[in-house]
Amino acid sequence: MRRLTIALALGLTMAGGATASAETPTVVETPIIIGQSYALPSTVMGQTRQINVWLPPGYERSGQTYPVLYVLDGGQDQDFHHISGIAQLGTIVGTTRDVIVVGIASVDRRNELALPTENAELIARYPTQGQSDRFRRFVAEEVQPFIEAKLRTNGETALMGESLAGLFVVETFLKEPQMFDAYVAVSPSLWWDGGKLARQSGAHLRDHSNDPRTLILTLGDEGEEMQAPMDVLTAHLRDHAMPNTRWDFTPRPTESHATIYHGAALDAFRRLYAMPAPDAAQ
After folding, report:
1. Phi, psi of 6, deg, nearest 5
2. What is the rounded distance in angstroms from the CA atom of residue 92 to the CA atom of residue 82?
3. Percent of residues in the chain assigned helix, strand, coil, to nearest 5
4. Closest CA to 185 of 277, 248, 111
5. What's the order of all strands across the beta sheet hosting 213-220?
6. Residue 199 in 3-state DSSP?
7. CB-side exposure of 249: number of CA atoms within 13 Å?
8. What digits encode the pLDDT tens for the residues 136-163?
9. What average pLDDT does the segment 120-132 reach?
């Protein structure tokens, strides 16, 4: 009798388990595809580098061409998702034009984004520093041609970066202005090498052509070390920028170096990629 009771109990348990299993819905797991990552072999850098791309919704079907925003520190664990998210939001709600976002990942930031310094303390602390010119050649000679050959671009380009990447943006604007149509430098580390780039900016600006360019600068409440070279740069821009250079500096006193990027990037999107005004004749 005891054996029969045990057998019946086991049978009910198994039957109950089968019923529960049958009633439990199947959970389907699928990956979320944000964009496409490319391993780009680089002769200039001597290694394979990560390039991440976000395409506007409808890119595959539209047949149209798009502007391209190149984002420094654009790795998947850096600022790629942040900035591509701003682009996606503008597309969804219709506040900004569609734009292709290209994230250029950094590996050794002071090597790739900082210009050479003569400061012995900086050299000792960052022995690989000062190869921004090589990284700029990588962007100009390998990244931009790769994107232009692979994607439907319309020739409108911009470069965005924050902190040391912002320093690289300013240096590129001053030394190779023809590389991009627009430049966005958020809290640029102009303090690097004692503010030398800012002091030399007047000479670089006097060498510029009068081709249309846009430079957007912004800085938070970040102390005299950051503010003083920005003041020098903006003074030279007032004195020496060509008439077709549209530039402005927006102080953000309520932001710190750690909090400034999102709002500044959102504002830059709204300026660079504003939707066209409705045609009054329609």
Report:
1. -65, -45
2. 16
3. 45, 20, 35
4. 248
5. 36-42, 47-54, 100-104, 66-72, 153-162, 182-186, 213-220, 245-252
6. helix
7. 18
8. 999 999 999 999 999 999 999 999 999 9
9. 94
C-alpha 168/C-alpha 161 separation (Å) is: 8
pLDDT at residue 236 is higher than 70? yes
Helix (H, G, I), strand (E, B) or coil at 160: strand
Share of the chain above pLDDT 90, in %: 85
Q: CA-to-CA distance for 117 and 120, rounded, in angstroms?
A: 8
Q: What is the pLDDT of residue 7?
A: 43
User: Residue 82 is encoded by which pair of tokens?
Assistant: 């942040």
CA distance 249 to 32: 38
Would you say residue 264 has pLDDT above 70? yes
CB of 173 closer than 8 Å to CB of 208:
no
Q: What percent of the chain has pLDDT over 70?
A: 91
Mean pLDDT of 117-130: 93
